[in-house]
Design a protein that fits this description.
Blueprint (H helix, E strand, L loop, with lengths): L32 H29 L12 H28 L26 H29 L12 H25 L3 H8 L18 H7 L13 H18 L5 E3 L5 E3 L3 H9 L11 H4 L8 H13 L1
Helix pairs in contact: 1-7, 2-3, 2-7, 3-7, 4-7
C-alpha cells in the first residue's frame, strides 16, 4: 500500500502514513511461519544488521583487549567514550545534517510540519538541537560507556559468565538476534515504569520536551533515565555471553534512537529511492504521551492495551482510559 501524499495534512499540520502501525506477526497467534520469517527479516534489514556490523567492528578494532580491561583505568575508558560519542555523532549528526540543516527533502514524509525549536525557553540555550546534543554527549554517552566499561572489566576478571563465540557459534549468533527482542521488551517495561508520575516528574519529563522530535532527541534524557534505559545490558551479567553481545546491546540502545526519532517516515536517499524509517508508532507516543511505550515488533502495547495506531478508535480508547484514571 502506498503512503498517502505527504502534503495531505490535518489542521495541526500532521501527516499520517499508510499503512498504520500493527503488531509484528512474529508473536501473532495463530502463528504463520512465512509471515514470521518476513517480519524477522524486516526487523533485521537494514538497520539492525548495520548495528550488528558496527558492534562487531568495534569489538575487533576499537575496543581494548581483555588484558587492558582487567583493570579499570581511565585511559581505555576514555577511549570507549570517544568511540561511542563519534559513532553517535556520525549517525545522529548525519541525519540531522541531511534532514534538518540541508533540508534535503523538505517536509516530505515529515510527521509534523514544524522544524526543531529555536528561542524556546524550555531548552538549554533556547535551542532544542543544542539541548539535545548536550544530553546525548554528556549523560548519554557517559552512562553508556560506564555500563560497557564495567561489563568488559567483569568479563576480563571472569566475574560474569563468558561465552566463547568460536566454540558456540550457533548460540552466539542466536544471542545476537535475541538481543534485539530483549532490548525491545526491556524498553517497554522501563519506559512504562518511568511514566509513573514520581519518576516522570523526576526525570522523564526532560525527554518529553521533545514533541517535535529530531535525531538528537532519541538519547536526550535525564541521567536517572539513562541509568534505567541502558540497564538492559545487565542481562549479560547473568546469562552466558560474549563481550561483543554486551557491546551490541549497548550500541543498539545508544545508536538506534537517532533513527527512531528522526521525525520522518522515509529518508530520500536519491531522487527515485527512499529508505524507510517508519517510526510513526513512537512519534504517536511523543504526540500523546500515555500510549505506545514499546515498539511494534514486540506487541506488548497491544497485549497491555496501551497501543495507539493513529485511528479515531484508538484515540477514543486513549481518552476513555485517561478519563477513567
Amino acid at each position: 500500500m502506498k503512503d498517502q501524499p505527504f502534503f495531505v495534512r490535518n489542521s495541526r499540520g500532521e501527516w499520517q502514513p499508510t499503512p498504520l502501525p500493527e503488531p509484528g506477526p512474529l508473536f501473532a497467534w495463530p502463528w504463520k511461519p512465512w509471515n514470521a520469517l518476513k517480519s524477522l527479516w524486516a526487523t533485521l534489514w537494514p538497520y539492525n544488521l548495520i548495528y550488528i556490523g558496527m558492534a562487531v567492528v568495534s569489538w575487533l578494532y576499537l575496543t581494548p583487549g581483555t588484558e587492558a580491561t582487567t583493570h579499570l583505568q581511565l585511559g581505555w575508558i576514555v577511549t570507549l567514550y570517544l568511540r561511542n560519542a563519534v559513532l553517535l555523532t556520525f549517525v545522529a549528526g548525519g541525519l540531522h545534517l541531511r534532514l534538518y540543516l540541508a533540508k534535503a527533502q523538505g517536509m516530505d514524509y515529515k510527521y509534523i510540519d514544524k522544524w526543531l525549536g529555536k528561542g524556546d525557553k524550555r531548552f538549554l540555550f533556547g535551542s532544542q538541537t543544542w539541548d539535545n546534543i548536550l544530553w546525548n554527549l554528556t549523560s548519554g554517552c557517559v552512562i553508556w560507556t560506564a555500563y560497557e566499561s564495567i561489563s568488559l572489566w567483569a568479563y576480563s576478571n571472569k566475574i560474569i559468565p563468558f561465552l566463547d563465540f568460536r566454540e558456540h557459534p550457533v548460540y552466539g549468533s542466536l544471542m545476537m538476534l535475541a538481543i534485539i527482542y530483549i532490548r525491545y521488551s526491556h524498553f517497554f517495561f522501563v519506559h512504562w515504569l518511568i511514566h509513573w508520575k514520581p519518576l516522570y516528574n523526576a526525570c522523564h519529563y526532560l525527554h518529553h520536551k521533545n514533541i517535535n522530535i529530531g535525531p538528537w532527541s532519541g538519547l536526550s534524557m535525564h541521567p536517572l533515565e539513562h541509568l534505567f534505559y541502558f540497564s538492559g545490558v545487565l542481562i549479560h551479567w547473568v546469562i552466558p555471553s560474549h563481550p561483543v553481545h554486551a557491546i551490541f546491546h549497548l550500541m543498539h540502545a545508544g545508536i538506534s534512537p537517532a533513527v527512531g526519532h528522526s521525525g520522518f517516515h522515509k529518508i530520500a536517499t536519491s531522487k527515485d529511492r527512499e529508505l524507510i524509517a517508519d517510526h510513526y508508532f513512537h512519534y504517536l507516543h511523543h504526540r500523546h504521551f500515555t500510549v505506545n511505550f514499546g515498539v511494534q515488533e514486540v506487541p506488548l502495547d497491544w497485549w497491555f492495551r496501551t497501543h495507539h495506531d493513529g485511528t479515531p478508535e484508538s484515540h477514543a480508547r486513549m481518552l476513555a482510559a485517561r478519563d477513567k484514571k
